[in-house]
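The instructor's notes for this session suggest beginning with a concrete chain rather than abstract definitions. Hand out the sequence below and ask the class to guess, before any prediction is shown, which regions might be ordered.
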Amino acid sequence: MFNRIEVRALPPGPRWAAQLQLRIDGEDVVAEVVGGGGRGPFAEKMLPADGRSPLWATGEGRRVVVGEPECTGGCCGYLSVFVQRHGGVVEWSDWQVPGDEARPPAFHFDADQYDAELTRASADRSSWHLSTE
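After discussion, reveal the predicted structure:
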């Protein structure tokens, strides 16, 4: 059985630009690891207008930073995951976590659903309320 990913942009706040919320099977995996004062990945970086998102999965995997604790990644470490496509499956594995946090498990997504969700989230840029500064 595959996991299901949902990507949602959160509006910018007083401290951070618009961020992505990455929900897997209904759970916000980033918030669970980085905590309430931390942050998820910036929407503009993860889903840029040119379509070259680090979240796009290819046969050549890559490590993607998806979160940072309140104390900053330079202090406690970042939350990152290795993203790779294996035919019709996208795998998120080999999590690196800040501090002594528990590592999320590996997740496996249907590649078509994964691609469709990233495409949908990328097209929905109007909901980001990105600042023009």
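Then share the key points. Helices lie at 29-34, 43-46, 73-76, 111-123. Residues 111-123 form the longest helix (13 residues).
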